[in-house]
Each structure stands twice: as structure tokens, then as C-alpha cells.
Amino acid sequence: MGPEIAELEQKLADYCGVREVISCSSGTDALWLPLLARSVGPDDAVFLPSFTFTATAEAVALTGATPVFVDVQEHDFNVDPDSLVAAIADIDAKGELTPRGIISVDLFGQPADYPALRTVADRHDLWLLDDAAQSFGATHDGKKVGSLADVTATSFFPAKPLGCYGDGGAIFTDDADLAEIMRSIRVHGRGTGKYDNVRIGTNARLDTMQAAILLQKLSIFDDELTARDRVARRYRDGLADVVRVPVVRNEATTAWAQYVIMTENRDRVQEALRRDGIPTQIYYPKPLHAQTAYGDYPIVPGGLPVSERLTKLVLALPMHPYLDEPTQDRIIAGVREAATAA
Ligand SMILES: *Cc1c(COP(=O)(O)O)cnc(C)c1O
User: Fold this and answer.
1) Measuring CA to CA, how many Å separate 182 from each of 25, 34, 40, 170, 172?
2) Which residue puts its alpha carbon closest to atom 1 of ligand 1?
3) With pLDDT > 70 as the criterion, what percentage of the chain qualifies?
4) N or C: fewer beta carbons within 10 Å in the chain?
């Protein structure tokens, strides 16, 4: 917790236009701390998409609360507000769990539909936590990720848009009282001094060294976002007629954590690229509700057909700000050949 920590937190707050930033040790802790601070626990229900990284559900389950899985929309991979409404109604009707909050995920870098989610959250008196591990730097209606939900959690893992050289994360909010509790939980529930423990906390500090690295990387981050956008545009121009390419909603920008194409020939395309030495990744091969660890948790009535379908179609291509044009042309040619082969 050296001086670079406070400097980074201030710079991140300025960058996003929020009052409070709490740096922490990972994106997973950035999701977990706000739940602990709100005393989420047994008998509580938290609604979240099934088509996401496991950490989104893990943070909820670790508190003893119940993650309730809802479906996503095919056009932006993010929470489907209608599915969310149906899941809340179902939990309400059963009467065993208390709906507490919603975790939206800005998958692959594009913010979820926050105005729609806000309406649902307000109507049911739920808080909205943005899992922005993949979307730091993106915007919705000109407002930066970090300021779109009641609390936002991001990750600085090296594979994320703003990565450090190891693990790191941060929490964003305008709620000063909640921020104070989260700062206390970050260092073992401390009160007025180091050996005054007023609540049960954990060790979730960010290393000062990672903060120093992030300060440098933040200073070129907007240039890197522009470069990612250029790479995404070239992929779209080169591939949109042979596979489905991501659509960015008019009111949003994306951080392009991943560039994910969709094709019925996914496995063939991946194998052809692999033979050509081009790495790709499937995010995610299994929706969380189908995972061994989460199979017993409730799902929205009617199931999650979109999440299940997407797991069979999606393929993430190499994406980073320094992808040069000849290399990208090779990737595009490889996808085109495999996607169109009879
Ligand atoms: C990476 C990621 C996390 C977890 O972040 P860590 O820093 O690896 O703990 C959480 N949610 C999503 C959607 C992620 O992509």
C-alpha cells in the first residue's frame, strides 16, 4: 500500500468520473468485496448471466448466497433483461430466497444494456454490480464503465484491456459509506488502526509494484483502445461476409477485450488456424449452469437456450493493440478459407 496505490486510485477515479476507487488484488476480489460489504449471504439470491467467466458466480457462492442464472442476448452476449425479469419473478414466487442484487457482465468488452437493467433493478429494489473485468475503458451514452452501475468491479489481469504484470483489480462507486467498508475489508476488517478489527475481512491489497506499472500503462491506455478499435474494424471488414462478427450498439463503445466471431464451422476454423500456428480460444465452452460446481443452483424458467447455443459458435481471434497488419491479414485469410470450405 505504498504511495502509488493512492495515486492510481485517484487517477482511475478521474478517468471514470466516479468518487471512490478501491484497488484490490484481483477481479475476483473486486466482485467479492462489495458482496461482503453488503452482507450478502445465505437466503439471498443474486442474479447473473450463465455465459461468463466462473468468477462472477464464484464470488456470490463464496458468500453463501445463491447465484441465479439468467440468459444472455445473442447480439451483444450480455444479460437479457427479459430473462432477468422472469428469473426475479420466479424467485419471488417461490419465496425461499430474498432477491438482493444483479451482477451484469460486460462480456468481451461491451457494456450491458444499463438503462434497461437499471429499470429492472429499481423496480425490484435490487443493487446493480457491473462485472467489468473485460470492459474497462468502454462507454455507454458517453459515460465510462466504472460509472454505469452502483458498484463496478474490474480486473487488471494481464489478459484484460488494462493489464498489469500479475494479478490486480479495482472497485468503483459513488457510495462513500460502502467504499469505507470495502477499504476496511481489504485489510482484515480494520477499524481505526492496524490491530483494531471491527469486522471480518481478508487480505485483498494490490501490490504497490503493480500500481506503479498500471500508472504507466494508464497513460497510454486511450491510444491502446484506439489501436484495438482499428484491429476490430479490419477484422470486420475482412470477415463480415463469411462469419458473424460482433455488433457494437449505437450508444456503446467497447474495450475489445476479445474479438469473438460466430460460425457453425467453429471447430473446423479453429483446427485450421491451429495447424497454421494461429492461437484462438473458446470463451466459454460451457455455460456456468452446466458446470459441475454450479449445476445445483437455480436457473431462469424456460432455460438458457442462447447461452447454450453461443458455446457452440463462438471463437476468439488474436486481439491486442499491437497486432500488425500482415499478421492480421494471415489470420483473416485463414478464417476465410476454413469458414467457406465446402
Ligand atoms: C477475468 C474475469 C474475472 C476475474 O478476474 P481475475 O482478476 O482473474 O480474478 C471476473 N469476471 C470476468 C468476466 C472475467 O473475465
Assistant:
1) 13, 7, 13, 11, 11
2) 133
3) 100
4) C
